[in-house]
Protein 1
Amino acid sequence: MRIAVVLFNLGGPDSPEAVRPFLRNLFTDPAILRMPAPLRAVLGRLIAWRRAPTARDVYARIGGRSPLLPLTESQAEALEAALAREGATARCFVAMRYWHPFAAATARAVREWGADRVLLLPLYPQYSTTTTGSSVTDWQAAADRAGLDLPTTELCCWHSDPGFADATAAILDRALAEARAALPPGTALRLLFSAHGLPEPIVKAGDPYQWQVEQSVAAVLRALDGRGTAAPEHVVCYQSRVTPQRWIGPDTEAEVKRAARDGVAVLVCPIAFVSEHSETLVELDIEYRELGHRLGLPGYFRVPAQNSDPGFIEALARLALRALDSGRPLCSFAGARQCPKRFGGCPHAAARERAGAGDAAGRAAGIPEQAAA
Ligand SMILES: C=CC1=C(C)c2cc3[nH]c(cc4nc(cc5[nH]c(cc1n2)c(C)c5CCC(=O)O)C(CCC(=O)O)=C4C)c(C)c3C=C
Ligand SMILES: [Fe+2]
Ligand SMILES: [Fe+2]
């Protein structure tokens, strides 16, 4: 049995010239800009054109290109090796949503390799209609066009997976120890869990992302506690607003300012990206760090993203094997529930849509906080 594991990620420009077409692909995606097709095509191009100079400046600060593809390829290689150690004949492919390699090329590569089965594995722990949902739709169209008609298993979300939480807590634990050692004794430290933001209307329409981010934070804090490390005070916040509409908050930048006012140091932990990219390397490592220094923050530290951390890759391999065992669309949540695809492919979305926003809403919807997978 030859298993193709298709890793989904967002993709990023590989040169300054690629920035505008990459942004055009992003802003004309119906999952991102929710309006009728003709209007979306016009407005999406306009927004891409307006955003391009800012985005080009961002990428210029990290060598003119996104690091996302090489880092995702390294994750693919490491995951393939981890699956081989478990005895699985699997090959890992990468399908990016907005820049090369696109799903079309990957679907052809999967067919040419002669796969018998496909596992779709999003490198987004939390499900959003704008990320995993969009990639799955894109893949299905690409697979149809490539004549790829194979048994396919989708992994929907893995926000509370204990393996993911443990691996993340181990990385956080090391960063916490380093930050505490670097600070003068008695300096208070606040942990900022920073996730990519989302326009508020998308969350109000039932997207489960924000709720799942809160669940990831809870799972990581439990895992940290399990390691015997006392977590400092923490906040969940959202970065990378790119459109003028209202986005979910609190804003990471506002939290850095608040910490400066409160005279506490911050340790920023990315919670919705599993590899470094422009927003961790520029927004977190340069812009907010400089802001903190300007405002007299007692200290600014950052937890590295998982990238190909061995504990994280082992966790991904276990997730992949569990999904393959189940053989059906899978949420790695509360005992591997299956996705009935009622709403955007994720049952949590449907529950959350009924309940409204926030963690309390999730509890009201009867969604357990503890992962049992
Ligand atoms: C309305 C616009 C956007 C939504 C919604 C959005 C959701 C979203 N994005 C990520 C993860 C990443 N986004 C990245 C870049 C990026 N995202 C947007 C816009 C939206 N994202 C833009 C315009 C850009 C380009 C960069 C810029 O102009 O500042 C990236 C990575 C990039 C890289 O290094 O190349 C990631 C990763 C998530 C998880 C998410 C929703 C949950
Ligand atoms: Fe984004
Ligand atoms: Fe799910």
Protein 2
Amino acid sequence: MFYQRPTLSKFLIEHLRGAPSEQDLSALLVDVAAAVKTIAAVVAKGQLHFRGEAAPDRATVNVHGEVQKPLDVLTNEIVLRHCEWGGLVAGMVSEELDEPYPIPADHRRGRYLLVFDPLDGSSNIDVNVSVGSIFSVLRHDTEAPPGPRDYLQPGHRQIAAGYAIYGPTTMLVLTVGNGTHGFTLDREIGNFILTHPDLRIPSETSEFAINTSNERFWEPPVQRYVGECKEGRSGIRERDFNMRWIASMVAEVHRILMRGGVFMYPRDTKDPKKPGRLRLLYEANPMALLVEQAGGRGSTGRGPLLDVQPESIHQRIPVVLGSHEEVERIERYHREFEDGTDRPFVSPLFNERSLFRPEAL
Ligand SMILES: O=P(O)(O)OC[C@H]1O[C@](O)(COP(=O)(O)O)[C@@H](O)[C@@H]1O
């Protein structure tokens, strides 16, 4: 019976019972879940929410120079308002804000830092494709208000991470360090119900996700991996692969958690100063923790994502996530490329081994 399945609150109480120092974490995650329910309602209304006001008239530009849609701004406000009041967080970093958000002086400060992307994949909103919110929780164990440097903690120091996906159903997928668990929003009773306990990613896969329009800018190890997948059963992988690209990282990672696969947003050699598109603190790290807690692997292509020491709050990073053996293979291809022992892959695009070796940059 559905009522025998735990709600999110019951799950958190049970899973954090042995960690008295983290009792506030349950309360914070319940606040995050309340923000997610509000965002789910707003996203589901779409343009109805704006009573016919044309989105482009109200679009602004965020810290990254990207167009902020009204929903980006609104969902950012929703997370801030739900999480600032409870005395649980010491500060917040959002994709939509240039600087960390300080807790207002009339609110108590807590011991956690919340970093989040309130509406990932928001360019998909106009075409009614799944979008999501991503968040990560770090510790802040001092009384002093946090400065930007306090947020620069490697991903393995996250004490909780998760995402919400606003699709045909709204789901919250969460880890507090003991597995990755999926909850489905039951709109009739207003609760998240544990529907996908202990998700496990198959270690091998025959599905990959990458934006192939950037193929000419990928580094050779990525060209080699994808090239070999595309060769199918007549190539060295001896099996056919399938490709998916939704352009919504949350939806992509959700698919991988459900049935395996690899997601890549690799380094782009057209601009060596821009190491990838996705943000380390509030996109790559939480997703890497969720994937690793489900038995997968999160990598930059060259090593574990969760070991990267962040240098700035909005830092970008190359991302390779998913089935363990496939991610390890991609890391091996990077090593072999760097020590010159890689198998030449002749790209049908260029009909030569590669245009991009680091020394050419
Ligand atoms: O448009 P591209 O290059 O395919 O990029 C898609 C990627 O950008 C993202 O949408 C992130 O971009 P936003 O931060 O603008 O939402 C990811 O969710 C997705 O994987």
